[in-house]
Amino acid sequence: MMPETGKAVSLEVVEVELALGAQDILADGFEGALQKAVELVGGKLIFNIRAPENSVYQRVAAISVSDGSDEQTVFVTLGNDGTTFAVTADKSDINVGGDLPLL
Prior knowledge:
Blueprint: H1 11-21, H2 25-41, E1 44-50, E2 57-66, E3 71-79, E4 85-88
Antiparallel strand pairs: 1-2, 2-3, 3-4
Helix pairs in contact: 1-2
């Protein structure tokens, strides 16, 4: 799911989103899909954690991706339906619900 219109999107975010979109989350699970996407983009999985119980997400993950000169952290959320995900480089885009900050 791309960010709202008007926001700049980095190539790394697009790469991670395309790599994840090519995975079968139902067959591989979120962890497996993340691992395959990380390999495809040459990144590193920083964390994959369960979101708080009252959140609109099941899981929140972070992937470190480098373009050769700069490193960027890309955040991935898995929706409560277990199949939809969102990718962003801006952690303020992620609202886990309630008064709980993501990071």
